[in-house]
Write a structure and sequence with these properties.
The chain has nine helices and no strands. It has helices spanning about 5-10, 15-20, 40-55, 55-70, 85-90, 95-110, 115-130, 140-160, 165-205.
Length: about 210
């Protein structure tokens, strides 16, 4: 099991492989049945505004996590940060920068493959969600905070460009991403529980 600290960063390394060979990801063909639809008009808006966000991609990624820490300070300990540490103290911390960079790279893949959400993007975020069960201190509520933090950060970055149309388009992609992260998390949680129960039954039969 992974715990707080440097171990967390290692689980995001697979994003680099997914980005280079996104269709090579091996995963059972299970996904949310009510995944948020993203239509052509939404995709156009996302593609048009992404370059503004990507211009300061790592900095914007860090802001997402700083917002998460503000909304839910307890999540700091997942990164090994003390609850009393301020955003100013951790904004340039290598652990935060690396984790934020990995997430933004995954978002970039999502934008680049908006026409392949089911075949390319879904497996990436389901796999990332599955890895979150091994981060001590994470629970399903984390994903609700995450969604709000992304939206808030985008609003700050886009400023006057953050129109109702832009908000609607990005909200759909955020919903899609969070649904698949959460689905992967719950999928692995249930599978892990089933494996544990199976081992317990096996041990019991042996005795």
């Amino acid at each position: 099991m992974y715990y707080e600290g440097e171990e967390m960063a290692g689980d995001w390394k697979e994003v680099e492989v997914m980005r280079e060979e996104p269709t090579s990801v091996v995963i059972e063909h299970r996904r949310p049945v009510d995944a948020t639809p993203i239509y052509a008009g939404h995709r156009d808006v996302i593609r048009r505004t992404w370059p503004i966000i990507a211009d300061q991609m790592n900095a914007n990624g860090c802001q997402i996590f700083l917002c998460i820490f503000e909304l839910s300070p307890g999540i700091k300990r997942v990164f090994g940060f003390g609850s009393a540490m301020s955003g100013a103290q951790i904004v340039n911390h290598p652990r935060l920068v690396q984790h934020a960079s990995r997430f933004m790279e995954a978002m970039q893949v999502a934008v680049q493959h908006l026409d392949e959400l089911d075949t390319v993007v879904s497996p990436i975020f389901i796999n990332l969600g599955k890895r979150h069960i091994y981060f001590e201190g994470i629970n399903a509520d984390y994903f609700n905070v995450f969604s709000g933090a992304i939206l808030y950060t985008w609003r700050q970055v886009l400023g006057e460009r953050f129109s109702a149309e832009v908000r609607s388009a990005w909200s759909r992609l955020f919903d899609f991403v969070i649904q698949h992260l959460r689905f992967g998390y719950e999928l692995e949680l249930n599978d892990n529980r089933s494996r544990s129960e199976g081992h317990e039954k096996t041990d019991h039969n042996l005795h």
